[in-house]
Amino acid sequence: MTQADVALFTAVLDRARRYPSPHNSQPIRVRITSEATAEVFYDLDRGLPAENFGIPFGHVCAGVFFESVAAVAGGMGHAAIIDVVAEEMDFSSADRLHRLGTITLTPAAVTLAARAAAHAFDARQTSRRPYDKRPVAPEALEAAARAASDGGHALNSSSDPSLVSGVIRVNQSTLFDDLRNDAVYAEIMEWLRFTRQDALERGDGLSAETMLIPGPALRFAMGHRGLWDAPVIGAAVRGVYLRTMRGVSQIAWLEGPFSGPADYVQAGRVFMRVWLELTRHGVALHPFGTVITNPRSHAAFVDAAGIREEPPTMAWMLFRLGYSKPPPVAHRRPLEEMIIA
Fold it and tell me: Per residue in 297-330, pLDDT tens?
């Protein structure tokens, strides 16, 4: 197979590699098998198995990637036909590449909707910046809700000040609580990038710059987690975190089937469609993953929001949304590191 044979898929992947992933770990690997086909894998060495729900959200990440490829390919005149392999991930496996499925590209007309989705994908970023207090435009929420509904999920939102402020506080306390778990702490320390240069050179991870926390302050706080309960230092660390939450007046969440790998992958695809619709309307978002994955915080959230979860349905994604200035760029690893030779 020559370089020319893989030119189409290479062009698609070079844009799609900017898909969002937990901790910006970028676990998806791709083996191009022809000009129009490729096998997709999850690199288990880049997963987050220590976190509660870390494995299900590995499949969600796969769905996000599949939908990213679909959006990019659609804007380039191709439909992405995705055949998912819905099998549980085994992080003890000697084979560190877990097969997720295959993608086949077929020629298709470039519609206005396809062009808009591709443009939104290129513009999409996670914004941890303070938001202004404007409510999200109704037409943006309606478009995002339709995208969720078309995928079998429901998008709900609230601008109730007590619920919004309560969720922000729960998210903050959950983050610090989770990091007291040694395994989770070790996992996240692997992905923190304390300097701009380190983030640029590695091309992955959570950089202090994108988290809007000075690198030395983040390094000290993470290196001295035993001091988080101290009256002065603990309050200072929490204050730095809460400053990035200024202006948040609205939260939203997704509910739908979430009980196995096939559900998780579909959930990821739905989330990406919702994100692209919000981006298309100029709306920023920032997921509050820890509130969903921490059992105690999850229970507190669904109770406060009046959500009734009846298996297999679950409130599986929560995020703040609104309007903010453009956030710093989160770097990505080069395409060569995604493609399996």
Answer: 999 999 999 999 999 999 999 999 999 999 999 9
Structure tokens at 99: 């097969």
CB 131 within 8 A of CB 249: yes
> What confidence tier does 27 reach under pLDDT thresholds 50, 70, 90?
very high
What is the Cα–Cα distance from 191 to 201, expressed in whole angstroms? 13
Beta-bridge partner residues of 158: 251
Contact predicate 245/170, CB 8 Å: no
Question: Distance between CA 294 and CA 299 in Å, rounded?
Answer: 9
Q: Which of 263, 251, 273, 250 is nearest to 145 (CA)?
A: 273
pLDDT tens digits, residue range 57-98? 999 999 999 999 999 999 999 999 999 999 999 999 999 999
Q: How confident is the model at residue 173 (pLDDT cuts 50, 70, 90)?
A: confident
- In which band, very low, low, confident or very high, does the pLDDT at 19 lie, cut at 50, 70 and 90? very high
Asked if 160 and 250 count as a contact pair (C-beta separation under 8 A), the reply is no
Beta strands (DSSP E) in 258-312 are: 284-287
Q: Phi, psi at residue 43, to the nearest 5°?
A: -80, 105
Element housing 246 (H / E): none
* CA pair distance 233, 227, nearest whole angstrom: 7
- Give CA–CA dist 69/63, Å, rounded: 10
Topology at the third CATH level for domain 4-159+248-333: NADH Oxidase (3.40.109)
**Cα gap 106→40, rounded to integer Å:** 17
C-alpha to C-alpha distance for 32 and 80, rounded to whole angstroms? 14
Given a contact cutoff of 8 angstroms between Cβ atoms, the answer to whether 317 and 271 are in contact is yes
Q: Mean pLDDT throughout 198-227?
A: 92
Is the entire prediction scored with pTM above 0.85? yes
Element (DSSP H or E) covering residue 255: strand 251-257
The enclosing H or E element of 186 equals helix 182-189
